[in-house]
UniProtKB/TrEMBL annotation:
This is RAS small monomeric GTPase Rab6. The lineage of its organism: Eukaryota, Fungi, Dikarya, Ascomycota, Pezizomycotina. SUPFAM superfamilies: P-loop containing nucleoside triphosphate hydrolases (SSF52540). GO terms for molecular function: GTP binding; GTPase activity. InterPro entries: P-loop_NTPase, Rab, Small_GTP-bd, Small_GTPase. PROSITE patterns: RAB, RAS, RHO.
Length: 203
């Protein structure tokens, strides 16, 4: 096939594993569903074990496949999770802005990721459910400070109304190896890029 002038599109498709972590009912599955299908299910159904989906993203100069691993938040599934973190490129740690405990518990998820991957991973702290702003228990400043302290990316989202969900995944894709310069150039309000380590295990 003749070259279209965009050489990177003829290269092998790079795959990156994203693992979603956080307490039960913070909206991990809803974020993935909004990104994949642009839909939201008002009926809550807990994830049992681990679910997997993948989606190709077309960026300005390359195409990447994001492999999305949705983990259960219940304590009884905790023993399964380290093996999924171990070869991840990105850990997305989600909390509910209307549930202070879910925010406090992000620290244990972050520690789990660091324990398995050290600094060889991008960690994104996501404050979900901004549609419940009138019930907010965690301020944006608190989320930003936690991200700054731990060298994380940060964003607030609403899977229910779609707020910042596409931006979340686009920023992740741009922060992956080879895109970090563009990600920093295009950094917008609501995101913190500090110490986004870029040594990855591909598979």
């Amino acid at each position: 096939m003749a070259s279209s002038g965009v050489g990177s599109y003829s290269n092998p498709l790079k795959k990156f594993k994203l693992v979603f972590l956080g307490e039960q009912s913070v909206g991990k599955t809803s974020l993935i569903t909004r990104f994949m299908y642009d839909s939201f299910d008002n009926t809550y159904q807990a994830t049992i074990g681990i679910d997997f989906l993948s989606k190709t993203m077309y960026l300005e100069d390359r195409t990447v496949r994001l492999q999305l691993w949705d983990t259960a938040g219940q304590e009884r599934f905790r023993s399964l999770i380290p093996s999924y973190i171990r070869d991840s490129s990105v850990a997305v740690v989600v909390y509910d802005i209307s549930n202070a405990k879910s925010f406090q518990n992000t620290r244990k998820w972050i520690d789990d990721v660091r324990g398995e991957r050290g600094n060889d991973v991008i960690i994104v702290l996501v404050g979900n459910k901004t549609d419940l702003n009138d019930k907010r228990e965690v301020t944006t400043a608190q989320g930003e400070e936690e991200a700054k302290k731990n060298g994380l990316m940060f964003i607030e989202t609403s899977a229910k109304v779609g707020h910042n969900v596409k931006q979340l995944f686009r920023r992740i894709a741009q922060a992956l190896p080879g895109m970090e310069g563009e990600a920093n150039r295009e950094s917008q309000s609501g995101f913190i890029f500090r110490n986004c380590w870029l040594a990855f295990s591909e598979y």
